[in-house]
Design a protein that fits this description.
The protein is an alpha/beta fold. The chain is built from ten helices and twelve strands. It is globular and about 70 Å long.
């Protein structure tokens, strides 16, 4: 079966994902003929959604439909097949086993990050010590950032990023732990990959036109995050007619851009962008429905750590003191299939999300047949 991103018309909006209570979102039928054809596929239209998509109940849809070919999606018969194919492919993606989640430890090298800016001071000793703490707290990956992406943050020059990053990166190679670089700059990414980094975390979703070709050539794992605008302007772009649907579709367009630039599907990790161009309530909604993004067919990263969606939930608690709240959010994301959890601290938070993931997806137990 084709993956969701392999279907014809993959850049078109209204991809399929579960809405809950047995309902699924997909493109609207737009005609009675198409609705009747969908019923023949075992798909019952329930009504339109605010973004122009529709909700459906699935009764007997086959998981393996004949291959979908290119065609006119405005032709009712072909449109029904296209909708059914999107639903079938999304259901197959959701049925894939979820990996054991990994802890990506945040190592900020900035003076202005929202919860730990400037605490390491200059040089490499502070970051090196903090990296050792993260590794002791079960970090699988260290994510180095030299440019704050908090709301309202301004861009940092390539030169300044490299000045902050390179000495620390070189000092961390001794630990033989995968190193990720949190940057929007292809030039910074290239220098760091050459120096030994093995992963890029691009919150801007390939805004630098040189980033995708670089990553395609390198073949490294890459996190692509959903964001509207830039960190300086993103909180002016929080109007959504259907939050989950629009974030879902924009992530698929981003994945298609990466694939079209030569990146392999195996490189791509998607991040719905908790707190980026999202209000506090919208961030909570993303966490509550994090599982639906598995229908994209790519591994997922969740980054809830210490973010401002907790402000009203934990009144009087500073950002640096939100690790308990972070553990709750991380566990919820892990239980819904997050492959990576990007957190400021590990330890008990890692214990929490590992247990949540294991309990949500328990290993099958063989029950011996009773002897006769």
């Amino acid at each position: 079966m084709l993956k969701p991103w392999e279907l014809p018309g993959a850049t078109m909006p209204h991809h399929a994902f579960p809405l809950g209570e047995g309902c699924w979102r997909a493109p609207a039928a737009k005609s009675g003929i198409c609705e009747t054809a969908l019923l023949d596929f075992g798909v019952q239209p329930l009504g339109n959604l605010a973004d122009g998509s529709a909700s459906y109940a699935i009764h007997r849809l086959k998981d393996f439909l004949p291959p979908l070919t290119e065609g006119d999606v405005n032709d009712p018969a072909h449109r029904a097949f296209w909708i059914a194919s999107r639903l079938s492919s999304a259901r197959a993606a959701m049925a894939q086993p979820t990996p054991a989640p990994q802890f990506m430890g945040i190592l900020n090298l900035t003076p202005d990050s929202f919860s730990d800016g400037g605490i390491f001071g200059g040089g490499t000793m502070g970051p090196l010590y903090h990296a050792q703490c993260l590794l002791a707290e079960q970090a699988d990956i260290l994510d180095l950032g030299a440019e704050s992406t908090r709301p309202g943050a301004s861009a940092v020059s390539v030169e300044k990023q490299l000045q902050r990053l390179m000495p620390v990166l070189e000092s961390l190679l001794q630990f033989q732990t995968p190193l990720s670089i949190d940057t929007r700059s292809a030039e910074v990414a290239a220098r760091c990959l050459d120096a030994g980094a093995s992963m890029i975390n691009d919150v801007s979703g390939l805004s630098d036109p040189n980033m995708a070709p670089l990553l395609a050539e390198n073949g490294c794992k890459t996190v692509l995050m959903h964001m509207r605008g830039t960190p300086a302007t993103m909180q002016k772009h929080t109007a959504y007619s259907h939050l989950l649907g629009e974030v879902f579709d924009e992530l698929m367009v981003l994945a298609q851009r990466a694939l079209g630039s030569g990146m392999a599907a195996e490189q791509i990790i998607l991040d719905p962008g908790i707190g980026f161009a999202k209000t506090a309530i919208q961030s909570q909604q993303l966490i509550a429905k994090f599982e639906c993004f598995r229908a994209l067919g790519f591994p997922l990263l969740a980054g809830p750590s210490r973010k401002s969606f907790m402000t009203d939930l934990l009144p009087g608690v500073s950002a640096a003191q939100r690790d308990g709240g972070t553990a709750g959010a991380a566990a919820l994301c892990a239980a819904q299939g997050a492959a990576y959890l990007r957190l400021h601290r590990g330890g008990k938070s890692v214990d929490a999300f590992k247990v949540a993931a294991a309990c949500a997806n328990p290993q099958p137990v063989e029950v011996p047949c009773p002897s006769v």
